[in-house]
Design a protein that fits this description.
By secondary structure, the chain is α+β, with helices and mostly antiparallel strands. It has six helices and 18 strands. Strand 10 (about 200-205) and strand 11 form a beta hairpin. The longest helix has 18 residues, at about 10-25. Mean pLDDT is about 90; it is low at about 155-160.
Length: about 325
């Protein structure tokens, strides 16, 4: 075995001290004492390679979201022959502040992972990790749609030798798709009704009765919807054109001049809708700028009213349909 002027036991002790200072107290510069200048961090999940500086920023970001974060080292194994150290760890913390656009829930969260570290010249030269922030979001309850986070070179295939997605063409494609018009509703933490207009409603299955709605993170209703256990989905009737204008606006109290009633679990359901359902939110998936909500229908109402139709930025009377 190659002779060295350091021992892995010394490296291990220095590593534990720096790890605790960085992850549990936010003193990220302590990692400089144990990292080699050429340090690289490799995610086994995403295959991304990052630097020590990027790791420091990740730690600070996580600690901002989980200010009471505490790490426990369950196992630490040293392999003298391969000059490597393996750490098996878990952390506990309260989701106090938003993380990557995900609203804080106030819930206690446990996450765990393992790191395989290679040592060179008495310093950590590289580490392979099973954990990254996407793993933490899964533990929070919001797994990511992997395709939404692929690098640019894995973009949309188009009939163009450039290989670059034509966003205008994609928007044009979407504008040709005719949909219904819905208002998605919920209540905030103070019990105030909230809602937004959406045409991204999809029926996933009848058995079980699952539905899907995709919501942009920048909408004012997003945080309330994310933290809620239930949501309402209202299919707009031909008589609700003004209602759609209200929910497409940025008004603070969109329900002030509307008639509505509560579903069995408290979700606001709009009077005069062609149909309404109340559903329990079961799963949330991150899709970069949006979150996909999967919900199980618990209550439904259907009226003898014709639904409104949307195409290419315009609304149409759903009663004047003719068979082709």
């Amino acid at each position: 075995m190659q002779q060295t002027n350091y021992s892995l036991q010394q490296v291990k002790e220095s590593l534990l001290t720096a790890w605790e200072a960085a992850w549990d107290r936010g003193h990220v510069d302590s990692l400089d004492n144990v990292f080699h200048p050429d340090f690289q961090r490799i995610s086994n999940k995403s295959k991304n390679i990052s630097t020590a500086q990027a790791l420091k920023q990740d730690i600070l970001t996580v600690r901002e979201a989980f200010p009471d974060l505490v790490t426990t080292i369950d196992h630490l194994l040293v392999d003298e022959s391969k000059e490597s150290i393996a750490i098996f760890w878990r952390t506990n913390g309260t989701f106090t502040n938003d993380l990557q656009g995900v609203p804080a829930t106030g819930n206690s969260v446990e996450t765990r992972g393992s790191n395989l570290m290679k040592v060179k010249e008495g310093k950590i030269i590289s580490e392979e990790v099973t954990w990254d922030q996407s793993e933490l979001l899964e533990d929070v309850g919001v797994p990511s749609l992997k395709s939404a986070f692929e690098s640019a070179e894995n973009g949309v295939v188009v009939d163009d030798l450039s290989g670059v997605p034509d966003l205008a063409a994609l928007k044009g494609f979407n504008r040709q798709f005719i949909t219904g018009v819905t208002v998605v509703t919920t209540k905030d933490e103070c019990g105030k009704p909230r809602g937004l207009a959406a045409n991204s409603y999809v029926s996933v299955s009848l058995e079980p009765p699952l539905v899907l709605v995709c919501v942009q993170k920048t909408t004012s209703t997003y945080a309330s919807l994310f933290k809620s256990t239930h949501l309402g989905i209202n299919i707009m009737s031909n008589d609700q054109r003004e209602t759609i204008g209200v929910f497409a606006s940025k008004g603070d109290d969109k329900f002030a001049d509307l008639q509505w009633h509560e579903g069995p679990d408290g979700s606001p359901l709009l009077d005069g809708s062609a149909a309404s359902i109340e559903a329990e939110i079961k799963e949330r998936f991150q899709a970069k700028t949006h979150t996909v909500f999967i919900a199980k229908v618990k209550h439904s109402e259907v009226a003898e009213l014709e639904p409104m139709i949307y195409k290419a930025g315009r609304f149409f009377d759903g009663a004047e349909l003719q068979a082709l």
